[in-house]
Specification:
The chain is an alpha/beta fold and 306 residues long. The protein is built from 14 helices and eleven strands. Bound molecules: ligand TUI.
């Protein structure tokens, strides 16, 4: 299935794996790229040496293009941005901020620059400064989120820019992929379903929590602090939301989520940790390999789009 995005990235299928902090390490990224999608290593809050090592390990596992996500709230983002350019990674995606300071360096290195946006205004601005495509991410997504839903954000971004648009947020099956194309997207980015694949390094408890999740199991903490984060509900979200409603201080609230993603991913503490996942967790029914997942998505989407 060809699109402007499969052509731009040199990939077989219009499926991109989100560059999730802690979760999206080289075994997952390489598996997705080997299966014909675009795998992405999530730099998250790591340092530049860690990212460099991840890139070099991924290169050993795949000859196909892959990407790196730079989480712009990370204080080490400037050094990570340099590593991405030096290693001549095929694609860089960015999140949680404005990547303008790094655009020139990446473009000069031949890296395709694909920022995540949660609004039309930022999409237009980044097109003007040279973004090759944008990922329009709706509030259904896991982790750090914007306000608008995928259903309303994607078509508005498609109308506002001439570069290709990738839809993200709330997509976990072939119906979602087909719907994204109907909205004018040229590819999808999925996170949650890839967290629960065989090649994902997260603790089994994390995968099981996604697979068991129902439609109403998603929560957003931090709406009042200006840093809304979507996770699956557990003891941590219950305490956080109670304290947030009572007007607790930022310090008190941060105490509850400090190191929470590591706790969930590495230790499998899905009670007290931050089990970041999108609303689409309710659609994830089983742990597949990346190859099986991508084949299933394309079979389902093609049947609907033909
Ligand atoms: O970045 C994400 N999702 C994330 S980052 C992350 S790391 C983290 N770890 C622990 C606690 C909290 C976060 C987890 N999930 N998605 C991409 C995304 N970017 N969504 C929304 C945005 C965004 C928001 C505002 C992009 C740009 C923006 O503009 C700011 C500006 O400067 O204009």
């Amino acid at each position: 299935m060809k699109s402007t995005i499969t052509e731009l990235f040199g990939i077989q299928y219009p499926i991109i794996q989100g560059g999730m902090a802690w979760v999206a390490q080289y075994p997952l990224a390489a598996a997705v790229s080997n299966a014909g999608g675009l795998g992405i290593i999530g730099a998250g809050g790591a340092d530049a040496d860690w990212v460099k090592n991840q890139i070099q390990e991924a290169k050993k596992l795949t000859d196909k293009p892959f990407g790196v996500n730079v989480m712009l709230m990370n204080p080490m983002a400037p050094e990570i941005a340099r590593v991405v350019a030096e290693e001549k990674v095929a694609v860089v995606t960015t999140g949680a901020g404005n990547p303008e300071p790094y655009m020139e360096m990446w473009k000069e290195a031949g890296v395709k620059v694909v920022p995540v946006v949660a609004s039309v205004a930022l999409a237009k601005r980044l097109e003007r400064v040279g973004a090759d495509a944008v990922i329009a991410e709706g509030t259904e997504s896991g982790g750090h989120i914007g306000e608008l839903t995928t259903m309303v954000l994607v078509p508005q971004v498609v109308d506002a820019v001439s570069i290709p648009v990738i839809a993200a947020g709330g997509i976990a099956d072939g119906r979602g992929v087909a719907a994204a194309f109907m909205l004018g997207a040229q590819a999808v980015q999925m996170g949650t379903h890839f967290v629960a694949t065989k090649e994902s390094i997260v603790h089994q408890n994390y995968k099981d929590k996604i697979i068991k999740a129902k439609d109403i199991d998603s929560r957003v903490t931090g709406r009042t602090t200006g840093h809304p984060v979507r996770t699956l509900r557990n003891k941590m979200t219950q305490e956080y939301l109670k304290k947030e409603a009572e007007g607790a201080t930022l310090e008190e609230l941060e105490q509850l989520t400090l190191g929470g993603l590591r706790k969930a991913v590495v230790e499998g503490d899905v009670l007290n940790g931050s089990v970041m996942a999108g609303q689409s967790a309710g659609l994830v029914k089983e742990e597949l390999s990346c190859e099986e997942l991508i084949q299933k998505l394309m079979r389902e989407a093609n049947a609907l789009l033909k």
